[in-house]
Write a structure and sequence with these properties.
With 279 residues, this protein is α+β, with helices and mostly antiparallel strands. The chain has 2 helices and 12 strands, in the order H-H-E-E-E-E-E-E-E-E-E-E-E-E. It has one domain (78-278): Porin.
Length: 279
């Protein structure tokens, strides 16, 4: 009898706290929440972040050899006929569309790194158009189309074919002056059947830039080093079994005074050195 009484006493001591715990858990479910979330303030904060002006960056946007830019830029091979470049050639007025750029001029291939087999040459017009796909601050993506049209003998040029080079280019700011460039594109002959030109020349590339260590830099000035890796895939239109893939690595350096005055030098296996001075 003593043992049975002890068992009942133990069960009673265990049951009382469990009943109290169940009661407190039931009461907590019926109580109002103690943390209040103001969704109106959160939405207003997100809208203010979207409307806020972008923060200035210290990373320069370099124009590289044989690569379309993921931002608005005039190609190296395009030389305007009439007006000289302004202080900032990429500045836009209020009347311009903020996501479209169209420029044209003479085509001078030797301002870039020309390669044997490239379309066009002296006596061609160079028409360059860009559409900004999106701008996420550090990441910019543009769709560019370059058209090379012959001037004709009556204008002091040559007669020939018209070439189109569409490309999708990307620029990503890594911070502290470093950035990554990438693109993929193709070269087409405008007066040929489209399905015959889909695999004739496919181009792609990636590049990395970085300011020279222990030197001062900003978005307009500085001394930068870069390395490019450019790939090209070609097929012979007359023979479907002839295909070639080439890769070029181009290291270089660019010295910048501002956006309208800079010089680039690069090395490749086709040219010992190529120099561009824009002002």
């Amino acid at each position: 009898m003593r043992r049975r009484g002890c068992c009942w006493l133990v069960l009673l001591l265990v049951a009382i706290p469990s009943v109290g715990a169940q009661t407190s858990a039931t009461d907590s479910l019926t109580e109002p929440p103690r943390i209040y979330v103001d969704y109106t303030s959160l939405i207003r904060k997100e809208l203010n972040l979207l409307d806020a002006p972008p923060t200035p960056t210290r990373t320069a946007r370099l124009q590289l050899f044989r690569m379309p830019s993921g931002f608005f830029a005039v190609p190296l091979t395009l030389v305007p006929e009439d007006d000289p470049p302004t202080e900032d050639p990429f500045a836009k007025t209020d009347d311009d569309l903020g996501f479209v750029q169209v420029v044209y001029g003479n085509y001078v291939p030797y301002l870039d790194m020309p390669k044997r087999g490239d379309p066009g040459g002296f006596g061609y017009y160079n028409i360059h158009s860009q559409v900004q796909v999106f701008d996420l601050g550090p990441t910019n993506v543009c769709f560019a189309v370059r058209a090379l049209a012959p001037m004709g003998l009556q204008c002091g040029g040559v007669n020939g074919r018209t070439y189109l080079a569409p490309a999708l280019a990307c620029f990503h700011d890594l911070g502290d002056g470093a950035a990554v460039h990438a693109f993929i594109g193709q070269e087409l002959c405008a007066n040929a059947r489209f399905r015959d030109q889909l695999q004739t020349s496919l181009r792609c590339g990636v590049a990395v830039q970085h300011p020279l260590p222990f030197t001062s830099f900003n978005a307009d000035q500085g001394l930068y080093v870069f390395v490019q890796a450019l790939g090209q895939y070609r097929t012979d239109s007359s023979r479907t079994d002839v295909r070639s893939t080439t890769w070029d690595v181009i290291p270089g350096v660019q010295f910048r005074l501002n956006n309208a005055c800079w010089m680039s030098m690069g090395l490749s296996r086709y040219q010992f050195m190529s120099c561009v001075w824009q002002y």
